Amino acid sequence: MKITLTVNNTKHEVEINPSEFLLDVLRRLNYMSVKKGCDTGTCGVCTVLMDGKPVLSCSVLAASADRHEITTVEGLKDDPEYKKFTEALLAQGADQCGFCSPGLILSVYAMKKELKNPTEEEMKEYLVGNLCRCTGYASQMRAIKQFFEVKA
Q: What is the pTM of this model?
């Protein structure tokens, strides 16, 4: 079956298997920031934005993404908010191995668009599905607070 995906403002006509997941199609299209982690929708490393909302691409059938706008972290490279958050991650020592970073960055980017002045608890709740095996999340939380300009 053929679908149309717009990924980072580039239109793709793609032949897919009806049971294929969006993650696999994006990787086949060379969007390598989209990582394959748990394959069960629990770790968040496969997070992309679909029409501006975070989704777990390992749990979204590619057919259901037909005619939707998909954003991977590569699609944010010229966005000032992306640059501001990645600078905060670096400043707070939250870069670690980087495997979970694309999913976290996209989730925080979407959170900033959706929530105005979130509390720390709201931030944690929004990011509950983003797992990191390298850290205890303290540095990420400091970076998120810096990005939102929350006073510690």
A: 0.93
What CA–CA distances, in Å, run from 139 to 46, 52, 129, 143?
21, 26, 17, 6
Q: Which two tokens stand for residue 120?
A: 């720390």
Residue that the structure tokens 């679908």 belong to? 3
51-62 pLDDT, tens digit each: 999 999 999 999
- Token reading at 107: 């989730």
Tell me the mean pLDDT in the region 82-104: 92
Rounded to the nearest 10 degrees, the angle between the axes of helix 101-114 and helix 80-91 is 120
Both tokens assigned to 65 = 């993404």
SS (H, E, C) 103-138: HHHHHHHHHHHHCCCCCHHHHHHHCCCCCCCCCCCH
The angle that helices 138-148 and 80-91 make with each other, rounded to 10 degrees, is: 140
Residues in a beta bridge with 6? 11, 69
Q: Is 59 exposed, middle or buried (0-12, 13-18, 19+ CB in 10 A)?
A: middle
Q: Model confidence over 107-126: pLDDT tens digits? A: 999 999 999 999 999 999 99
